């Protein structure tokens, strides 16, 4: 063989794909080439997306016929509590309890399965399901045996402790309520067992830490759950304090047991520790990254702890809580931003959102940089705040499933004027804000297809808003897809590697059993994921 023939032969071999997925309807997310019939990959990269794939087919190329099904870029979930979500997959499920009696009986049955004194956590109950009455510890003391119980409302900002848990935490009628928290008392002047926001820390501090083995099990359960729902990356806001979560991810990655991409956030107050950690360890790679910080402005709407200018309609003595001292938030944000770290702050109420936007604006003026500040949830916005996201280049990191959940009962808490700025998807997109989507799992399901359904239809879970709850905020299927792919990649500084299917991008994609562009929008939530590929590796196939 001549030298030239050898070079041509090698080039042809180099050009051949390891795998070609063909006979598909492929939404690429690439505005220059939005639709394709085939995707060719080599190792972990896409080398072609289009129609004429024969040039990339070699004798060793694996050909995968997708039977005309829809392929999409892999979903990125912008906000999870991933390890605690993995724990909850096997914990008590109180979300289905629609009455006080069901709440009690579900806990009783779960506690009787294990005749020991281990803590019972998780729960995800919703008191609105039985009319809004908060649960009490005397509901459950007689049915929980030797178990200390601390089960959360599904938003994670309120929890119920039984008497055993209060005893272990040293909580008596004389216990002082922490700043940024709330605890309910009954007619007997004893605490009822309901703790909100910062008060929950009184119990959390006495709950034993899970072992490494348990944490690894939670992770693997969560990863499998993500793959079967088409999630190829999560932005994780922590569930075990952030640093424990990151250590778990690093341990599993080092042991080659992490196939899901993770961007791990730790608490904003620990910014100096993260700064030192990044200087020593770097910031990770395309599979596992860290450099993000998560802070809190307020609580939640469901727990009446989201921070508003005006009081709640059904709790007129409160307008919510700022759960972190505003001086601390400002100081931490400015310092962490100066250190080049990425900052995301939870804000639900209109006052909380305005405050953190002001802090971000101050940081922007102090330093010219690509900050990509994020407001996690950005749930209730004034009309002026809606305009400021695009103006300040701040990312609204939202979770659309909450809209169809909260929409069942939000009218009890807020007036129409405030509700018009709730989950303002359409308005934010119209201002050119970089809107991003996720789940807040386990607060809501780790199911992007249900999130797309929510954003497109805004039909509340009680079916009382068939045309949409504040329907003027509905968006299109393609817009919702961009929020779960392209926009989320940008929100994690990965827009040049992920979020769309084009040459040179990493090979993360999924295949669905129905075309969500063609079916009625109300049917989207029933669509199933057939296949999930991460980094060129097939990690899930639906049986």
Largest sheet: 8 strands, parallel
Q: What structural class do the secondary elements suggest?
A: alpha/beta
Beta-strand percentage range: 15-25%
Per CATH, the architecture of the domain at 91-204 is Roll
Helix percent reads 25-40%
What is the mean pLDDT? 95
Q: What integer value in Å does the Rg equal?
A: 24 Å
Measure the end-to-end span. 48 Å
Number of helices: 19
Oligomer: single chain
Total beta strands: 24
Spans where pLDDT lies below 50 across 5 or more residues: 1-12
Text of the CATH class of the domain at 91-204 = Alpha Beta
Q: What sort of overall outline do the alpha carbons produce when their principal axes are compared?
A: globular
Question: Widest sheet: strand order?
Answer: 8-15-16-17-18-19-20-21
The CATH topology annotation of the domain at 91-204 reads as Diaminopimelate Epimerase, Chain A, domain 1
Write the layout of secondary structure elements.
Elements: H1 3-15, E1 19-22, E2 25-27, E3 35-36, E4 38-42, E5 45-50, E6 62-65, E7 70-73, E8 75-80, H2 82-88, E9 92-93, H3 100-113, E10 122-125, H4 137-140, E11 150-153, E12 158-161, H5 163-168, E13 181-185, E14 191-197, H6 201-204, H7 212-228, E15 231-236, H8 243-254, E16 261-267, H9 271-281, E17 288-296, H10 326-338, E18 342-347, H11 350-366, E19 374-377, H12 383-392, E20 395-398, H13 401-406, H14 410-413, H15 416-419, H16 425-430, E21 436-437, H17 448-457, H18 477-484, H19 486-491, E22 509-512, E23 529-534, E24 537-541
Parallel strand pairs: 1-6, 2-7, 8-15, 9-10, 10-11, 15-16, 16-17, 17-18, 18-19, 19-20, 20-21
Antiparallel strand pairs: 1-4, 2-3, 4-5, 7-22, 11-12, 12-14, 13-14, 22-23, 23-24
Helix pairs in contact: 2-7, 7-8, 10-11, 11-12, 17-18
